[in-house]
Each structure stands twice: as structure tokens, then as C-alpha cells.
């Protein structure tokens, strides 16, 4: 029997108390800049058992301004920005070449929290990108060596052959270069912290970058 999607959607609960703990968040105690609060919330998500808290949605747009979004992994966050990586020739890479601006979104349902970030994106120096790649797992290097991301694939057998060859090289050459591998860094212009509330009085705190530094403001949920 076919699934009734609408009935299934109506049966689902948001922030089931058996799985989610909604902590209080007093925005008046938030630090002057967003990075320390992000680090605090990220650590809390890890401690709460959030699955893959380092994954995030990445939204870009093409030359025509048409949007796209996908899940990627956070590679780092510091005063220079939030970092992620991909091949320069991938769809996201081509988008960022044409329009070097993007948005990120982290969602940690175990705490009813999300963090939204947007700003201009630049590519880190090649040696930094290669160093980041080679500090990761053998599987990450094998995937990068397989290459051809976002290109049309002829068959799963073709991918299996390319992947097997890439795995062999990654094991024998752990420092093998991948010239197309690019480490991107998003420099935040806006960072919003969202804390869910059981009574739907959600707290939204937005940081905006100005010439004088960061400003903070609350938003209606």
C-alpha cells in the first residue's frame, strides 16, 4: 500500500521530550562576537550526543542566481571564518567562482538549536588546502583522488573501478596531491543563533558585522 505522506507528516512530533532537551538561552549574556558562542553551542551539541554535529547545509547560487543547497562538513572555524572543502570543478565550486557568497546552516535538534551564517567566500592557499586534506582520513583522500565530482557518471561499475584505484593510491601515497581540492572559507557578515522554546517563544539572536565591530539584535521568531 502506498505511503500517505501527509498522514505521516502529521504524525511526527517536533522536539520530542524523550529525545530533545531545550536549554534556556539568555541573549543578554551572549559574548560580543559570534565565534565564542558558536564554539560553546557546538561543544554542547557534541556533549548532548547530537549525531554528526559538524555537518551543515551549504547554500550557493549559480551565474543566473538560481539557488542550490547540500550538506557538507565543517573543516574549521576561527577568526578568519568557517571552512569547508570541495573540488574547484564541482557544482558548488563553480557556483562559488561565479558568485563568491554563500550561507551555512547548522541544525542540532537534540537541543532545538540552529546557527545560520552568511557572507563572502574565498579560497585558501593551495598548500593550506592540501595540508587540510592530508590531515584527514585515508577515505577522504581516496574520495578526493577519485575526482570528477558533479560530472555525469556512466555507471556504478565505472565509479567502483575509479574508487578502487583511488583507494590503492591513497594507501600507498598518503601525501598524494589533489590540485583541484579547494579549502573554502566563509567570512561571516551575519550569524544568527536560534534556540527553540517549548512555548514557541523561540530566541533568535543575530550578530551583524559593521565597520565598528559586531552588533547584536533580537529577531521575532
From TrEMBL:
The keyword Flavoprotein applies. FMN binds at residues 91-92, 114, 149-150, 204. One of its GO terms (biological process) is pyridoxine biosynthetic process. One of its GO terms (molecular function) is pyridoxamine phosphate oxidase activity. Binds 1 FMN per subunit. Pfam families: PNP_phzG_C (PF10590), PNPOx_N (PF01243). Residues 181-221 form the Pyridoxine 5'-phosphate oxidase dimerisation C-terminal domain. Its cofactor is FMN. Residues 45-158 form the Pyridoxamine 5'-phosphate oxidase N-terminal domain. The keyword Membrane does not apply. InterPro entries: Pyridox_Oxase (IPR000659), Pyridox_Oxase_N (IPR011576), Pyridoxamine_oxidase_dimer_C (IPR019576), Split_barrel_FMN-bd (IPR012349). Keywords: Flavoprotein, FMN, Oxidoreductase. Belongs to the pyridoxamine 5'-phosphate oxidase family. PANTHER family: PYRIDOXINE-5'-PHOSPHATE OXIDASE, PYRIDOXINE-5-PHOSPHATE OXIDASE. This is Pyridoxamine 5'-phosphate oxidase. The lineage of its organism: Bacteria, Bacillati, Actinomycetota, Actinomycetes, Kitasatosporales.
Amino acid at each position: 500500500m502506498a505511503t500517505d505522506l501527509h498522514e505521516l507528516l502529521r504524525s511526527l512530533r517536533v522536539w520530542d521530550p524523550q529525545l530533545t532537551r531545550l536549554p534556556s538561552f539568555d541573549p543578554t549574556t551572549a559574548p560580543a562576537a559570534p565565534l565564542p558562542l558558536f564554539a560553546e553551542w557546538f561543544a554542547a551539541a557534541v556533549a548532548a550526543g547530537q549525531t554528526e554535529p559538524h555537518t551543515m547545509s551549504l547554500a550557493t547560487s549559480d551565474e543566473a542566481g538560481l539557488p542550490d543547497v547540500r550538506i557538507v562538513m565543517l573543516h574549521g572555524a576561527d577568526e578568519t571564518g568557517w571552512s569547508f572543502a570541495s573540488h574547484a570543478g564541482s557544482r558548488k565550486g563553480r557556483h562559488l567562482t561565479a558568485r563568491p557568497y554563500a550561507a551555512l546552516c547548522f541544525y542540532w535538534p537534540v537541543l532545538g538549536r540552529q546557527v545560520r551564517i552568511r557572507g563572502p567566500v574565498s579560497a585558501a592557499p593551495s598548500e593550506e588546502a592540501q595540508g587540510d586534506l592530508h590531515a584527514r582520513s585515508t577515505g577522504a583522500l581516496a574520495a578526493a583522488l577519485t575526482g570528477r565530482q558533479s560530472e555525469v557518471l556512466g555507471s556504478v561499475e565505472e565509479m567502483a573501478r575509479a574508487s578502487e584505484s583511488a583507494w590503492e593510491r591513497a594507501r600507498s601515497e598518503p601525501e598524494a596531491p589533489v590540485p583541484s581540492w579547494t579549502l573554502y572559507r566563509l567570512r561571516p557578515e551575519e550569524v544568527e543563533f536560534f534556540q527553540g522554546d517549548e512555548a514557541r517563544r523561540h530566541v533568535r539572536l543575530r550578530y551583524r558585522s559593521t565597520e565598528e565591530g559586531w552588533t547584536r539584535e533580537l529577531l521575532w521568531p
